[in-house]
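[agent] plan:
  1. take the single chain provided in the ticket
  2. run structure prediction with default settings
  3. attach structure tokens to the ticket
  4. add a short note for the reviewer (M.T.)
[agent] executing step 1
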Amino acid sequence: LAEATKVFMAQVNNAARNVKFGSIPPDDEDDVALLKHLQEKNDAMNRRHQEQFDVKMKALKDKEMQLRMQIRAESRDCAATTALIEEQTHIQDDLETQIR
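[agent] step 2 finished; step 3 output follows
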């Protein structure tokens, strides 16, 4: 298996070099066709992965925006509650003062 892998990688590297420099010996045409096919598959997979990544990133950004809006709403509610507590505390303090 190791030897077969070594031979295959040598053929792929040779084909890549031939494609890069435009020198394609007749016996390497099959290798070049295979390399082009593999490159096309790789490009298609990269596009698909990029599309999936973009969809997931959009979903994450949408969720982030939703959470930010929820935090803002909760902050406003918290501030309103704090203001009511302060008002009630003042009323209670005034009542305690009047009772004394």
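[agent] step 4 note for reviewer: Helices lie at 2-21, 29-99.
[agent] ticket updated
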